Amino acid sequence: MTTDSDLAGAASAVDGDGAELDADDIAGDVSFGLEEVNELLGELVEIHRDRSRRDAEIVGYRLGISGQRPETLARIGARYDLSRDRIRQLHTRAVGQILREAQLSGHRAAGVFARRYPVGSRDQQLVRALLVETYATDTDIAANELAYLKLRLAGHAGEDARRVAGFVMQRIMAWQKKTNRRLAKLHNAELLATSEVNSWLGQVDWPASGTSAELPLRSARTIDRDDDGRGRFYLDKVGRDVAFDSGLEARLLRVLNASELVDTFREQPSAVEYALDGVAQIHYPSIVARLADGRVVLIDVEPLGHIGFHVTRAKSAAARTHAHANGWGWLVWTGSRSGIAELHGRSVDRQAESRLRELVDRGPVYWPAVAQWQTETELDMLDFIALVLRNEWRWERAPFRLTATR
User: Fold this and answer.
1) What is the pTM of this model?
2) Which of 94, 107, 117, 244 has the least C-beta neighbours within 10 A?
3) Could you tell me if 312 and 67 are in contact, meaning their C-beta atoms sit under 8 angstroms apart?
4) For residues 109 and 37, is the Cβ–Cβ distance under 8 A?
């Protein structure tokens, strides 16, 4: 499902020297081709589960296979009471085994990845494509591991894959270092930031009534606060170094720091409990911000292509309840001018929707059936996500599964 134009479009989202993404809107990078890559990774990890459940879980947590944001090594280590170095060793071993299993079985992933990341491509082309995928999926923390695995599955030699993955991480670290300086150099930074915040305020889900609770004095996320995989910069509005996990989070922080509509903010302010299929989970919403008019809004960064996932909707529902209980507004920020409301109202061909609804009504729908539906209808990924939200279907990844919930 991936074409040369997919890679060309991805490459165009990086500026001339490849050092900085055009961060205006990630909607153009949400595609069935990218989701097919993620689905195949999930399928391979699921196959490995038969060999070692724990190792497959570690790879899944690290790479964000289920649609969750990738976790730091320190946080995964806390799950298993193991050191971050031991988790790194187990992850590396499991990835090597997954690659061998894929090669021995002749898994179809090889053909898909080879078309998307062709052997013989220039390093710059591969780096650009991988950077755009990283930004669009909010997976900066695991960018090195994801880039290496994708390239190896595509048939690149180990040394070449490590080199290109290293270039990807160099570029990401360059963004982290220049993020704050870049905004400070813009003469109209405050005006631009205020305009963007104004556009968000119309999407905030405000509580019916109640007094806003004060912002927490410190972040609720402590296990991996100082993990070296996270970015960090000084923001003058709050007068401290602020940690972030991804380019999307950094962009949100830049805007909040520059806008005159925002008084102050706190990153990862709360540990929100939610249940996923009866299993207790913890989610740390990205930022709580107090506006200049005194209102408070809890903001969670969820990339546009992920907002239809069942896990995303489950944790968002819990975070919304938490926000309203504190008298705060609630906003899911997607890195795009398109948000949840826009997708709910998106116009999608009725005949195509009817065909997909018939598939779902007959029972669970898996990736091959959806891929065929997309090929026949020529709808794009945002159309699919809009239908998932509108019909309240349950969309799971790793492996892909679409089911009716009513």
Assistant:
1) 0.90
2) 107
3) yes
4) no
Closest CA to 242 of 282, 286, 303, 298: 286
pLDDT at 19: 35
Which one, of 127, 274, 269, 277, lies nearest residue 212 by Cα? 269
Q: In CATH, what is the architecture of 186-338? A: 3-Layer(aba) Sandwich (3.40)
Residue 61 and residue 133 in contact, taking contact as beta carbons nearer than 8 Å: no
Cα separation, 321 vs 315, in Å, equals 10
pLDDT tens-digit series, residues 16-55: 333 333 346 899 999 999 999 999 999 999 999 988 999 9
Element (H, E) at 265: strand 262-267
- DSSP 3-state percent helix, strand, coil across the chain (nearest 5): 55, 15, 35
| Of residues 235, 212, 308, 224, the one with CA closest to residue 268 | 224
Alpha carbon distance 218, 221 (integer Å): 9
Instruction: For residue 24, report the phi and psi dihedrals to the nearest 5 degrees.
Output: -60, -45
Distance, CA of 197 to CA of 48 (rounded, Å) = 44
For the chain, domain boundaries: 4-175, 186-338, 345-403
Low-confidence residues in the chain, pLDDT < 70? 1-24, 176-188
By the 10 Å C-beta count (0-12 exposed, 13-18 middle, 19+ buried), 157 is classed as: exposed
* Strand spans (E) along 125-247: 231-235, 240-244
- Residue 359 has which token pair? 């598939």
- C-alpha distances in Å from residue 366, one per residue of 221, 315, 391, 398, 402: 35, 23, 17, 11, 6
CA-to-CA distance for 399 and 66, rounded, in angstroms? Answer: 8
Nearest to 367 by CA among 341, 402, 340, 393: 402
Instruction: Please choose, from the candidates 110, 55, 113, 115, the residue with its C-alpha nearest in 3D space to the C-alpha of residue 88.
Output: 55
126, 92 contact by CB (below 8 A): no
Length of the chain in terms of residues written: 406
